[in-house]
Amino acid sequence: MTPEELLEQLKQKFGGAVTEGEVKGAEVRLTVKPEASWEACRFLRDAGFEYLNCLSGADWMTHLEVVYDLSSLQHPSKVHLRVPVDRTDPVIRTVTNIWQGANWHERECYDLFGVRFDGHPDHRRILLPEDWVGFPLRKDYTDERLVPYTDYGTEEKPPKPEAAPGAPKAASPPKAPAPPGPTGS
Amino acid sequence: MERTGETMEEMYVNMGPQHPSTHGVLRLLLKLDGEYIKDCIPFIGYLHRCHEKIGENRNYTQVIP
Fold first, then answer.
1. Cα B47 from chain centre
2. Do A146 and B53 touch (CB under 8 A)?
């Protein structure tokens, strides 16, 4: 099954739920609405994409997104599936019953983005302590310990301190060694 | 050899984040029955370096790993 055929099958089966889809090389990239995301994942797993490379999140300012990277051991193609999720109440159905490896990936996505996975068997934080407040990888996450990066190239450099009187002068470049004088006196 | 005359005593032992036997910084909560491990719950995240969050405010050349 070529990537183009797979995209056609997905569009026929899910119709309006596939909002964007294109084929780039050997990869099918598509965007699916969250209501049909579990069905689309099930269909893709049955079509031969039994390996979930990664399940990650993304924060576009208007909405969050759950990104699935699938690959197949049977066909030489990959699928990049994006599911936009509402930002105020991000819920999506879990895919742990499709791919077992999604367990910890979904826990990490919940921990860092706050996306809740409906039906997850072990829904808790994975990297941060359980009592942490907030979701760090969101763009509106603030913490006083996060120091913004400053680019000293555009600002004025701080002035050099004046040398106090009596302090040794700044070392001048070493003089070139004097050429050897005539031997003998 | 059968184990007779013993009582089962479940104990939770914490194998803390730094331990000579664990590979790196990993915390394991072990449910022990004597010397036998009945259950093991791992806690990770001690080695997370926040590369993605720091990279939000950096150029490409400053975050290539």
1. 11
2. yes
